[in-house]
Amino acid sequence: MAPARGMLLLVGLLGAPGVGAQEAPPPPPAEAASSTPRDDPPPTPEPPPPPLEPTVLDAPFLDAEPPPPAVPPRALRPFIPHGEPDTEAPLSGGTWAAHGGVALLPLGAVWGATRVGGDTRLGATAAEAAAGTVLASLPGRFLFVHPSYPQGRWLELEVGAFGAAMVVTPPVAALGTWGMGEVAFGDSQDRGRAYLGALGGATVGMLLGIAAHEGLRHLAGSSERLDFLRRYLALSLIGSGATVGYQWSRTPTPRR
Question: I want to staple 129 with a disulfide (CB 3.0 to 4.6 A). Which of 26, 45, 236, 240 is the partner?
């Protein structure tokens, strides 16, 4: 009895899970559950909250001053565009007289060159001044560059051209005057000293020429009449200044 009772107990323990598994109903498939129609209505969206109405506390005080800005405002210059030059604008009598007076300066400098050196020939000094003026006109045209920006601000290219012209123009003008005097009208005992004199005279003449040009241009205003004459007078002052310096510093070689 004991062995039979143990066998029955073993069979009961081993067969209980199988029996319980067979008796458990299978779960419903997911597709069937999802395809089952539902009678629940869709959720109603909540209405948006009403807009906030300003109150008395939200309005700024009328007597309160606004806070100062973090950065003070910068004063802007008024925009003044440059108009086209009036080539037919009339010139006053004083402007004409100023142009005529400046035109006499190169002529007086050429005549004075015959009184400061050993060469008293007017034709020789005039030829030396003409040679210096012609060579000075090659780089000297950039001495009359003006700012093209409406507010008068110089651009980098304009500043570079003007600076290069101020450096190059006096040596070139002195070379023309010195070369004409040494080759055509007799050499000097000390050519280096003669060239340095011409260089100093050309530098002084350039400064005077720029000042005279800008002064006459200021008198003329928006008129562009006689603009060529103003530039010619400025370049002539460079050439005649080089001639005065050359004749003053040179010592002519004695003629045989």
Answer: 240
Residue 181 CB coordination number (10 Å): 30
Distance (Å) of CA 66 to CA 8, 55, 70:
100, 20, 12
Question: Encoding tokens for residue 46?
Answer: 């909540």
Q: How far apart are CA 218 and CA 150, in angstroms?
A: 18
* Rounded Cα distance, 139 and 176, in Å: 13
Question: Is the CB of residue 109 less than 8 Å from the CB of residue 237?
Answer: yes
pLDDT in 10s for each residue of the chain, 256 residues: 555 666 666 656 565 544 444 555 555 555 544 455 556 677 788 888 777 766 655 555 556 676 666 666 666 554 444 445 556 667 788 888 988 899 999 999 999 999 887 778 888 899 999 999 999 999 999 998 877 765 567 778 888 899 999 999 999 999 999 999 888 887 788 889 999 999 999 999 999 999 999 998 888 876 777 888 899 999 999 999 999 999 998 877 765 4
Rounded CA-CA distance 16/8 in Å is 12
Structure tokens at 52: 């906030």
Q: Residue 239 and residue 199: Cα distance in Å, rounded?
A: 10
Is the CA virtual torsion 223, 225, 226, 230 positive or negative?
positive
Which residues 6+ apart lie within 8 Å of 131 measured at CB?
A: 176, 177, 179, 180, 239
232 C-beta neighbours (distance < 10 Å), count = 17
Query: Which residues pair with residue 252 across a beta bridge?
Result: 188
Q: Report the greatest alpha carbon distance in the chain.
A: 170
Beta bridge pairs of residue 10? none
